[in-house]
What does this fold into?
Amino acid sequence: MVEQLTVTERDLRRMLDVIDLGRQAGPDEVFPRELMRALAELIPADDITFQVSRPLDREFVAYEEVTEQEVDPGEGWEDLFWRSYWADDVCSRPQRTGDYESVWKVSDYLSAGQLARSPIGEWFRVIGVRSEIAVPFPATGTEDRRLLLFRGTGRDFTERERLLLRMLRPHFIEIHRDLERRRAGIPDLTSRQLQLLRLVAEGHSNTQIARRLFVAEGTVRKHLENIYERLGVTSRTAAVATAFPLSA
It folds into this structure.
């Protein structure tokens, strides 16, 4: 049977709720907990984790999870985790392919039988997971950032659920960037100002930006003046460096 990839009006409303909750997050959160709780209702999951790591150094940097499950993986769990991470193409997919955009499932790579015999299957048995879907975030230096949804029982994640995550991914990225800016004490900018400043950071001229945003060149100059005032700077270079220090 072919799965129907239909997104309903109810789905869209619930997706907007997920996004709105993310925008209300406190700056001390690695990733918004309330967003992940709402996401677990939209896409049923036993747990959701936002994981920040340095895979090449086999180190965890930070994480935020929904349930804080009482799971004791025992001694040596980090060795098992990193062995499973690099053993197959599943966990290390972004590092192996350079693709930090595609949402993927473990079942894209391994059948149930293959999973049972693999290092990642061994790790899944330790933490009580049966299926997983991953939403990668843009690469930041050597750090890997991803949102992981897990199920311990029942069916695998569907193509429709993958589609919903693909639609939500740009919003997740923007919410996370906003949290990082707030933690760094960077003045708040409107979404339009941030959009314009990213185009400046990419090297576009005022004329090119005006064409891309379908506005007059004078409007671009006015936006830049407001951005300079809000950031307390006097140049394009300083504005980009102040607004996006984490991209350096």
Summary: The radius of gyration is 20 Å. The longest helix spans residues 159-183.
